[in-house]
């Protein structure tokens, strides 16, 4: 807008409209496309047209032009009509006006802390169970190594020595015990995770639902029913999975990787370097 003149850029050149000549501006949806039409003394004029991917932008433009011809000013661009991030140029997710690549992650984590705080005990215990499961998984290979090298390969059990046989049976029982202990720890961790995740998911959905209830009618109408339902169900479910499933699994894998690396370096540094060399 330049004063009372609306300038539109097109492939055939710039088009200018004197907005003081228009008495009404309308957004018209068609099949597969949409347009902005204006009524003036010469009749109905189509100001611009586009496909349905720009329908939100055209609706916002029609409202702003209507505000202008009614003497209330051009107004501000509706932020919910923005489709791309101004920083990186990536397209926003449907119903969203924030870019997950450019948003400050630390701010989001701080906003999650009040939801995690009531369930800090079961989450902490589940993390301890993750450490214990990782430790048990490291013990089993050592038992298998001793069993194979000292008894099976060396044929120690063929000597008929009762002490050797007792040691062999002890290692077999130790392997079974570590497997049973790992299973019990996994069950304990799953129980704690279910307890924490259920409460966390309920609180998140209640908070999102309350936020939707506080939206104005215009704020609700900007989004489809499917987008609102996804906010309450799908998005909160994804966040819950990250906090109670993916994060502990990541921690467990990091612990195992560090432990295996240390064991390899102690046993055979050259072999450890050869194994770790292809690691990105």
Structural overview:
The protein is α+β, with helices and mostly antiparallel strands and 280 residues long. Helix content is 60%, strand content 13%. Helix 3 runs antiparallel to helix 4 (162-213), helix 3 (120-152) packs parallel to helix 7 (234-267) and helix 7 (234-267) packs antiparallel against helix 8. The radius of gyration is 33 Å and the shape is elongated.
Please outline the helices and strands.
Layout: E1 5-10, E2 13-18, E3 22-29, E4 33-40, E5 43-51, H1 55-69, H2 105-116, H3 120-152, H4 162-213, H5 217-221, H6 225-232, H7 234-267, H8 269-276
Antiparallel strand pairs: 1-2, 3-4, 4-5
Helix pairs in contact: 3-4, 3-7, 4-7, 7-8
Provide keyphrases for this structure.
280 residues; alpha+beta; two-stranded antiparallel sheet
């Amino acid at each position: 807008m330049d004063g009372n003149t609306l300038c539109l850029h097109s492939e055939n050149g710039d088009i200018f409209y004197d907005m003081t000549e228009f008495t009404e501006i309308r957004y018209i949806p068609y099949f597969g496309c949409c347009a902005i039409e204006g009524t003036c003394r010469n009749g109905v004029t189509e100001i611009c047209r586009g496909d349905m991917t720009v329908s939100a932008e055209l609706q916002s433009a029609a409202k702003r032009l209507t505000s202008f011809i009614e003497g209330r000013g051009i107004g501000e661009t509706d932020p919910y009509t923005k489709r791309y991030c101004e920083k990186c140029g990536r397209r926003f997710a449907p119903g969203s006006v924030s870019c997950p690549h450019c948003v400050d992650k630390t701010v989001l984590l701080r906003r999650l802390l009040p939801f995690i705080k009531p369930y800090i005990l079961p989450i902490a215990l589940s993390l301890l169970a993750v450490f214990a499961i990782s430790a048990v998984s490291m013990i089993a290979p050592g038992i298998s190594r001793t069993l194979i090298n000292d008894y099976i390969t060396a044929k120690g059990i063929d000597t008929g020595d009762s002490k050797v046989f007792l040691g062999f049976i002890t290692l077999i029982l130790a392997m079974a015990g570590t497997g049973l202990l790992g299973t019990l720890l996994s069950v304990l961790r799953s129980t704690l995770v279910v307890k924490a995740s259920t409460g966390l998911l309920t609180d998140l959905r209640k908070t999102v639902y309350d936020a939707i209830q506080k939206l104005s009618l215009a704020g609700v109408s900007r989004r489809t029913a499917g987008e609102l339902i996804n906010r309450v169900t799908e998005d909160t479910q994804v966040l819950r999975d990250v906090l109670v499933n993916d994060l502990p699994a990541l921690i467990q894998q990091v612990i195992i990787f560090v432990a295996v690396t240390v064991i390899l370096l102690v046993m055979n540094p050259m072999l450890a370097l050869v194994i770790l060399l292809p690691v990105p």
